[in-house]
Amino acid sequence: MKLQRTTLILLLLALGLGSFVYFFEMNGKTQQQQAQEKEQQIFSFAEDDIQSLTINTKNYLLSLERNQKSDKPKWLLTSPEQIPANDAIAAYLTDLLVKGKINRTVSTAANKIQEFGLEPPQARIDIKLKNQQAHTLSLGNPTYNNSFLYAQLGSTAKKNGNVDVLLVSKDFANAVNRELSEWKQPPQTSESKPLLSPPQPTPQKSK
């Protein structure tokens, strides 16, 4: 009887220890996965944190400012013209900035970034937040298999003289390589309905 009780106690202890190890490892894997996902994200700010955007391409320099007076349109073009912006086009870019992930990071010498199309960059996005923080994302050439785009955050080299080159979605190239007219709010067209002619009086028969 005593032997059975001892065996039962040992069994319960083993089950308890196994459960503890299982939940500990699962919790650790979850935290590690969350940390990796956070590290893979390009930026940590939210869309509502963005105050203005400046997009510098080989074709134009364009500036967007959040509309403070109304919700529609949400964005205003401030350069090269001061007119309402195309909210759908602006939202496509801001969504990429907020949700964009880093596929891989390559460390290279600062004097070799021109090989990635980053000196000078193919396009540069300057981001200003409501808290006055500023961020810069430079876009370079596509990768050899055209799956990703080379990019760089800021332009600061490390102590060893190297810089980090990121592999990001090639959707960034689609977001900035547009005709200037696409950034403008499209004209609102309304179908004009034909005017109804007033009814004509019925001629009366003469008696």
Would you spell out the secondary-structure blueprint of this structure?
Elements: H1 2-40, E1 50-57, E2 61-66, E3 75-79, E4 83-84, H2 87-99, E5 104-109, E6 123-129, E7 134-142, E8 148-153, E9 162-169, H3 171-176
Antiparallel strand pairs: 1-2, 1-6, 2-3, 3-4, 5-9, 6-7, 7-8, 8-9
| Bulk shape | extended
Radius of gyration: 30 Å
State the end-to-end CA separation: 127 Å
| Poorly predicted runs of 5 or more residues | 19-25, 27-38, 191-198
What structural category arises from helix and sheet content?
Answer: alpha+beta
How are the strands ordered across the major sheet? Answer: 4-3-2-1-6-7-8-9-5
Specify the helix fraction band: 25-40%
- The SSE order reads HEEEEHEEEEEH
Q: Count every helix, treating DSSP H or I runs of 4 or more residues as helices.
A: 3
Mean pLDDT equals 82
Number of β-strand runs:
9
Largest sheet: 9 strands, antiparallel
Description:
- By secondary structure, the chain is an alpha+beta fold.
- It folds into 2 domains: 1-40; 47-183, no CATH class.
- Helices cover 28% and strands 28% of the residues.
- It is built from 3 helices and 9 strands; from the N terminus they run αββββαβββββα.
- The chain has helices at residues 2-40, 87-99, 171-176, and strands at residues 50-57, 61-66, 75-79, 83-84, 104-109, 123-129, 134-142, 148-153, 162-169.
- It has a 9-stranded antiparallel beta sheet.
- A hairpin with a 5-residue loop joins β7 (134-142) and β8.
- The longest helix has 39 residues, at 2-40.
- The radius of gyration is 30 Å and the shape is extended.
- The model is unreliable at 19-25, 27-38 and 191-198 (pLDDT under 50).
